[in-house]
Design goal:
- 17% of the residues lie in helices and 26% in strands.
- It is of the alpha+beta class.
- It folds into three domains: 2-69, no CATH class; 73-180, Lyase, Ornithine Decarboxylase, Chain A, domain 1 (Beta Barrel); 183-222, no CATH class.
- It is globular and about 70 Å long.
Length: 222
Amino acid sequence: MDFVGEVEALVPGQLAVIDIGGGLSSTYTESEEPEGFTYAEYRRALDKAVPNLFSGKYKVVTEMGRSLFLKAGTSISRVEYVKDWVAGQRPILLTHLGTNQFPRQVYLPHIWRNRFTLYDSQGNPKEGAPTLCDLAGPLCFQGDYIAKEVSLPSPCATDLLAIHDTSAYTMSMYCKFNSIRASPIYGYWREGGHLRFACYKPRETVEECLAFWGLHEPQLLD
């Protein structure tokens, strides 16, 4: 707002909109947001620091995508295989989600860490002795790990791994490396005591994936 004052002093009355960006954080490690992570608390802090922002003179725009959408989504992958053949090493769960969908978690694991839940192939919560394991993705480089040292109950192939709080910075940062087709996106809600499902984005087709690389009949240019 100091900068706004400088602009107003030079060209009075020309500013109509102020975009304050994001700034409200979210938690990846808890199922619920902390009490301090509320829009009302954020508004109170702004009122105290920059009261002239809400004078009514400007239209105020925010970009709080993560805090709005993060906890609305859960990503689910089948466990394709469990590598547990080196003595003294943690088992590695091979999944179908990796750097292609979780670049922040793979490259900055000390900052970004999701919660995980393991289910059997029928969708029932797994039970059994907790096992410390690593979660690997499908890409062809050694660093493709969603997370390491994750405690999960008796993991095995065909299990379903749920990665919580994934409606931000996942599909919007999707990577085409290895030409892995982008995942479908489903929504669900309760209606009359029943669950209803809708497909908001079908899984990418082989043709759509190949079209990204320009693998089609060349177009002759005059």
